[in-house]
Amino acid sequence: MMQNDVVVVGGGISGLSLAFYCVQAGMKTTILEKNDTIGGSFASPHYSANGKKFWLEMGAHTCYSSYQNLLDIVEACGITDTIIPRAKVPFSLFMNGKVKSIVSSLNIFELLVSVPNLFTLKKDGESVKSYYSKIVGERNYNNVLSHFFNAVPSQKTDDFPAEMMFKSREKRKVVLKNYTFKEGLQSVAQAISARSGLNVFTNQNITSLKFVDGLYEIRTADGNEYSAKTLVLATPSMVTSKLLKDIKPEIANHFSQLKAADVDSLGVIVRKENISLKPVAALISPDDLFFSVVSRDTVPDDNYRGFVFHFKPGLDDKAKRNRITEVLGVSMSKIEHTASKINTVPSLRMGHHKWLEKTNVLLKKEKNLLLTGNYFGGMAIEDCVSRSRSEFDRLKG
Ligand SMILES: Cc1cc2nc3c(=O)[nH]c(=O)nc-3n(C[C@H](O)[C@H](O)[C@H](O)COP(=O)(O)OP(=O)(O)OC[C@H]3O[C@@H](n4cnc5c(N)ncnc54)[C@H](O)[C@@H]3O)c2cc1C
Predict the structure, then answer these.
(1) d(CA 332, CA 283)
(2) DSSP labels, 219-257
(3) Closest to 140 (Cα-Cα) out of 106, 171, 170
(4) Alpha-carbon distance 114 to 111, whole Å?
(5) All structural domains of the chain
(6) Radius of gyration of the chain (CA)
(7) Of 218, 193, 223, 221, whose CA–CA distance to 205 is shortest?
(8) In what order do the strands lie in the sheet with 178-181?
(9) CA 346 to CA 63: how far, in whole Å?
């Protein structure tokens, strides 16, 4: 059985950032990831044909100057010079088969009357719907803004706590306001996993845990075994709950209260000359088969364009492919590559802060069990890294 100081289950940015802090502190650390690549929702598959290269973002796509913990890690990994700006192309609505600008869809009078509330209203205790309806007006919220919020976690967000979406954080002045990376966000995951002293094993589906004589024993579906004094679970809440069922039933039960949604994404790559759609950052749809289409037009390429459709659940492959060809106005034969991915995102609800308070109480007596992910302080990348950092600080005492 492989002995470690720390074993991290889950190789998304939450697990990777916590592993980064442990390795920096000189701990022998191993990451175990179920999939065959590292990164979780940092997923940027690369393709090449006739010597031309292209990549797509199947999950996260944008970072901000306020992502200070992430930026510290990027700097320590020596990849700051791979940060690149995103081209200024619009986020648009897609309604009744047509692309519409956001401004033309807003009721300006209602907006002007409502927007002063921005300076007096607090987000605490408000839902996304109640808060933003007061900021932009109820009609503007229902007709326009709510669809943008729904597109973030690909689900209805009316009942999300307002303070968990789009937090205001201090910005790092020397960094671009919003940016991506030359080879996509997965290159950040790869840079962290290449840190010296960090072991990374993919295709390791963890199915059971034991706690014996002060050590965690971690077992995969294939029967591989690892052990560590400190265990990090950086998996979706339902997986964390299931894994802890036998060894920490009270925590498992507490985590089982959280809900999550799977985002079913299908990406396509098309030669530039075969598509007439004007460049966009994303198309947001109120009433289509998909919540959003995120495009690669933010990092323009000489030869190809790429589009990732984040579909509503329960569609078969044929329905998805048909809708893609209709929206893009291209036949299937013009699609050169496809990629698919399922990401899990939390379904946060009002009262989440109470769940978090109880989590902190339960973890007080569990110094060597660290729990991180995108369902603690919020689902943005920086929320994940901040959570990992505070869990690492708890370990160090
Ligand atoms: C489509 C999409 C777009 C987004 N865009 C942005 C954006 O632009 N900017 C932003 O700030 N945020 C964005 N987010 C949110 C952010 O990217 C995610 O919240 C964050 O990346 C989640 O990281 P994580 O490590 O917590 O979870 P994940 O990335 O989901 O990683 C969890 C990992 O655990 C692994 N795992 C699960 N079960 C097991 C098991 N039993 N054994 C071993 N491994 C297991 C999974 O395979 C996965 O790799 C986006 C999210 C999505 C889905």
Answers:
(1) 20
(2) EETT--EEEEEEEEE-S-HHHHHHHHTTT-HHHHHHHTT
(3) 106
(4) 5
(5) 2-41+178-259+347-396 (3.50.50.60), 102-164 (no CATH)
(6) 22
(7) 221
(8) 63-64, 178-181, 83-85
(9) 19
Choose among 333, 307, 332, 312: nearest CA to 321: 332
Distance CA 258, CA 276 (A): 43
369 vs 230: CA distance, rounded Å: 6
pLDDT band at 202 (very low <50, low <70, confident <90, very high): very high
Task: Please identify, by atom number, the ligand 1 atom nearest to the C-alpha of residue 67.
Answer: 11
Instruction: Calculate how far, in angstroms, residue 303's C-alpha sits from the geometric centre of ligand 1.
Output: 29
Q: How far is the CA of 151 from the centre of ligand 1 (A)?
A: 16
The residue nearest atom 6 of ligand 1, judged by CA position, is 60
CA 79 to CA 96: how far, in whole Å? 43
The CA 344 to ligand 1 mean position distance, Å, reads 6
| Residue with CA closest to ligand 1 atom 50 | 60
Query: How does pLDDT run across 261-300, given as a tens digit for each residue?
Result: 999 999 999 999 999 999 999 999 998 999 999 999 999 9
Distance 12 CA to ligand 1 centre (A): 5
Two structure tokens written together for 4: 């470690």
pLDDT tens track for 129-158: 999 999 999 999 999 999 999 999 999 999
- Residue with the smallest CA separation from ligand 1 atom 12 is 380
Length of the chain: 397
Minimum CA distance residue for ligand 1 atom 36: 10
* Lookup: tokens for 166: 């789009």
Nearest atom within ligand 1 for CA of residue 235: 34
Within 6 Å (CB) of ligand 1, which residues are found?
9-15, 32-35, 40-42, 59-62, 204-206, 234-235, 239, 263, 310, 343-345, 373-374, 379-381, 384
Question: Ligand 1: which of 56, 201, 232, 235 to mutate, most ligand atoms within 8 Å of CB?
Answer: 235
Give me 71's structure tokens: 């930026």
